[in-house]
Amino acid sequence: MKFPKPPWDEATIRRFFTESPNQLFYSELLGFRFIELNCEEMWFEAGWEPDARVSSPTGAVQGGMVTAMLDDVMSLAAITVAGFDGVVPTLEMKTSFISPVWPGPLKSKGQVIKKGKQFFFTEGWLWDAEDRLLAKASATCFHKPHSEVKRIKEERGL
């Protein structure tokens, strides 16, 4: 799929995640898979399938990797609401680990709780295959539109 000019509508975002084979390395490592999204309700769902490569010596998925999955799905909810126009870096995040996360199929949901002009307040949840809540998080993201990202990259010679 050719990368269209933002902002994207919900159908374009869905097509990007179902037709595009390109994933960021960490998403591929964690077994990312798109499930569903809803721009109007401001949520994004993703599946994951982490394996032993991202596990601690106990065999459970390392906490930083769990946090990465939640950060990703919350950021995807925010950038989806922004029509994939730019980036939404996380400014702060809190993760609560409820139960150990074992390698295998997982699902997650990121939700924009409040959208301001530039800031997004998000929450995320991670469940196992039996729908047991394993971890949850909340975060604040800052939206930088594509035009601003382009300007910054040009200033830095990137």
Task: Give a brief rundown of this model.
The chain has 158 residues and is of the alpha+beta class. The chain contains four helices and six strands.
Notes on the structure:
With 158 residues, this protein is α+β, with helices and mostly antiparallel strands. The chain is built from 4 helices and 6 strands. The protein has helices at residues 10-19, 25-29, 63-81, 146-155, and strands spanning 33-38, 43-48, 90-97, 106-115, 119-128, 133-142. It has a 6-stranded antiparallel beta sheet. A hairpin with a 3-residue loop joins strand 4 and strand 5. The longest helix has 19 residues, at 63-81. The two termini are 24 Å apart. The mean pLDDT is 91.
Q: What Rg is obtained from the alpha carbons, in whole angstroms?
A: 16 Å
| Oligomeric state of the chains present here | single chain
The percent of residues in helical segments reads 25-40%
Contiguous uncertain segments of 5+ residues: none
- Describe the largest sheet: 6 strands, antiparallel
Average pLDDT value? 91
- Give the beta-strand count: 6
Shape: globular
What fraction of the residues are assigned to beta strands by DSSP? 25-35%
Task: Report the span from N to C terminus.
Answer: 24 Å
Number of helices: 4
Strand order of the largest sheet: 1-2-4-5-6-3
Instruction: Please provide the ordered H/E string of secondary-structure elements.
Output: HHEEHEEEEH
> Helices and strands: which structural class?
alpha+beta
Please give a handful of descriptors for the protein shown.
32% strand; single chain; globular; 4 helices; 158 residues
